[in-house]
Please model this.
Amino acid sequence: MIISIKRTFIHKTYFTVSILGKAHKLNIKYAKRENVKLERLENEINIILPNIYRNSNNEEIINMCIQKLYNEVAVREVENAMEFARFVFGFAPEDYKIKRVNDGYYKYSNKILTINPDIVSFSREVIYTTIIKVFCKIKYREGSKKYENAIQKGLREYEIYINNNREVNVRRKVG
Model:
């Protein structure tokens, strides 16, 4: 459960939702419509509910909307982090999936890596470093010298990757 409330939302901002480490105002609105609409703006998320939900407990619907948003963001962000780790380490798990897990942000079992989409509430740095750590755990015993060296290699490569992307973005803005 992402949001827990005790009363019905009435067209106001009550919460913020974090996406990639940035807070977005959560606006709940009601309209004459048949379905739920989710809008992600630069610093806001609008959830527009049908009028029939105005006087009911809508916590579950709101959480489902936010989970759907997290799923959509996770597909892109996790794929990018996985590609980065594949490039750095030269291997990848046999398969991975994006699915909620109860006890953390990832699980590796039966050669399948499961990433919790709620990880996108944190910054890209957290996502990438988590994927780096998972790749190192897959290949090396946690706490071993090889594991520690692999973590350091992954973090160094991530810093280079970030610095190169910053330079490209600066050149795009200037040019």
